[in-house]
Model the fold of this input.
Amino acid sequence: MYIVCLDMEGVLVPEIWIAFADATGIPELKKTTRDEPDYDKLMNYRLNILKEHGLGLKEIQEVISTIDPMEGAKKFLDELRSMCQVIVISDTFTQFASPLMKKLGWPTLFCNSLEVAENGEITGFKMRVEKSKLSTVKALKSIGFDIIAGGDSYNDLGMILEAEHGFLFKSTEQIKKDYPDLPAFEEYNELMKYLKNIIK
Done:
């Protein structure tokens, strides 16, 4: 039985931090896992910038409430969920993801959590498990599932390469060049054709 494991940001919804950088006019916050493979380093960098500017969870959530899924994402996800189980595995946080999951019809989401002070300052973050995407795929395989996994960034490569079938979606030219054997897609209809050939 197949389970499809999908990254969230860059695959189903726009990058939250890029939207927040645009809304606040802080270009340093545009850095994502496409630019920095070390997620702990990236998050600590982001938290320091938030502290410098006096920004907290409330301001980020206000921006997230204005973000819509990528065009065609919900339709794609609905069709895929009618064919097999789908888990969205993201390095984002529950406090960020809920409004986006609502707009996508509440797919199953595995993600992390933020540590937030009473005044709304984000003081830290708690990862669900080390290398959460890879660990989740390994765990699902260990209980008898076959995995199809896809994403767009460096932090997705562990689960993509561990899966029986892995692919890139809306990835960077550099990642596609570094991993030429991985199928790469730009549109949901192309990706759906690929998935239908596997899930028969």
In short: The domain at 2-13+70-112+128-198 is CATH 3.40.50.1000 (Rossmann fold).
